Amino acid sequence: MSEDKLRIFEEDAIIQEYFEKLKVLVSKKSIFAQQIGLLDVASLLREYFYEAGADEVVLDASYAAPFVMAKFLSNRPDAKTLIFYNHYDTVPADGDQIWTGKPFEVSVRDGFIYGRGVDDDKGHITARLSALKKYQAESGGSLPVNVIFIVEGAEESASVDLERYLDKYKTDLVGADLLVWEQGHRNQLHQLEIAGGNKGIVTFDLQVDSAALDIHSSYGGVIDSASWYLVSALHSMRATDGRILIDGIYDQVREPNERELALVESHALANPASVTELYGLTLPVLVEERREFLKRLYFEPSITIEGLSTGYLGQGVKTIIPAQAQAKMEVRLVPGLDPYDVLEKIRLHLAKHGFEQVRVAFTLGEKSYRSDMSAPSILRVIELAEQLTPEGVAVLPTSPGTGPMHTVFETLEVPIAGFGMGNANSRDHAGDENVSIADYVSHVELVQALIASYE
After folding, report:
1. 436/425 Cα distance (integer angstroms)
2. Scanning 166, 233, 386, 448, which has the fewest C-beta atoms within 10 Å of its C-beta?
3. Half-sphere exposure in the Cβ direction for 325 (13 Å, CA)
4. How confident is the model at residue 1 (pLDDT cuts 50, 70, 90)?
5. How far apart are CA 384 and CA 419, in angstroms?
6. How far apart are CA 367 and CA 197, in angstroms?
7. Cα(57)–Cα(3) distance, rounded to whole angstroms?
């Protein structure tokens, strides 16, 4: 880690002030999936924004998760507007995850900051506020650009009701020069990734009831079970090479253009070998050739079994034919695919192949968004990042992950660039979520430079 960055982190009063606020934010659980602490943390953010000198702060709890909007206005009549989109909700940190320390208590070890939300996404809020305050302190207080923070509380649950909030405050947000996305990562070479899109998603539950009760397994040769029935249905939906076998899925996919393909081939580092090493894979990857691997990862849909539940999994043996079986499923979407249409195609597929008894229940859905990264305001970010990042910059038109970029762009029509302070092993959604101190400071510096670029 750069000793210079560590010194800045330890000695800069503003960075330390907001690092202390990050500790408080992390200590307060705000989990939409469990309906924990949402209004408390939204109220705390309102307090932080007012303390930072915001001209206006809105806390709107009209819908499922409170929405916070804070405006820091320039005194220039022709000032452009810069929006930071963030979220204050996190995923849980339950007993299925291994943490070295306490997940809801920030700890610093060996140059890294640990805690649930330090990367995804509370740390980005405090780092960006630090950048704004540092610019004001070093320039005499006047901003060259209007800065608006919008912070939602349901990003980890498909951004429930975000479109309603955006529509409600659309007049405050349309016409902005740039929207900086919630977060981003550095790749394995420590290059800063700047992305302009993400995949969409539809998640759904499948359930089969094959009998009124579990049956003695002596009947296994003459009657079907929920378990086998569901496994067969699942097998019908995906080929052994990972391709989706649902009729019409690929017909609607919007193919990437040449610039989008070129950006991924030039800047994406993911490959079969790196993924195998990173995750300790013991099964072979589904695509070996690099170009096809990247096209599948960034530009094609995928179907995944998130979890299976059936039968007896306790100690010893219980000789039964299970009467119930359930699966939690997802399809990652790309431009051209609508969550509800994809789910309807899945229902038709199951009926066509004789699996009428599989019940399909929608749980959440988001469309996908992709940019070719050629907007002038995005090119400005790339140029600044190249100046401030000795390790280099990787520009990607999309990422394999999912978020509400489509929702935001469809409503606001603002160029979007995603970049942040995560690293290749930040472990978002897993135990020991982390960011490095050096990357935290670097993000503060880049955001401060972005604000200054509007002078």
Report:
1. 10
2. 386
3. 19
4. low
5. 12
6. 11
7. 37
Residue type, position 217, single letter:
S
pLDDT one-digit tens code per residue, 85-125? 999 999 999 888 999 999 999 999 999 999 999 999 999 99
Bridge partner residues of 238 (DSSP) = 244
d(CA 61, CA 369): 27
Six-digit token pair at 131?
A: 């950048």
424: closest CA among 279, 261, 224? 279
149-185 residue pLDDT tens: 999 999 998 899 999 999 999 999 999 999 999 999 9
**Tokens linked to 49:** 């924004």
Question: How is residue 26 written in tokens?
Answer: 């992390």
What separation, in Å, do the N-terminal and C-terminal C-alpha atoms of the chain show? 32
- Say whether 411 sits in a helix, a strand or coil: helix
Total residue length of the chain: 455
> How many angstroms separate the CA atoms of 305 and 153, rounded?
26
The dihedral through the CA atoms of 145, 151, 157, 161 has a sign that is: negative
The token pair at 33 is 């999936």
Residue type, 163: E
3: its two tokens: 């000793």
DSSP one-letter string for 326-352 = EEEEEEEE-TT--HHHHHHHHHHHHHH
3-state DSSP assignment of residue 14: helix
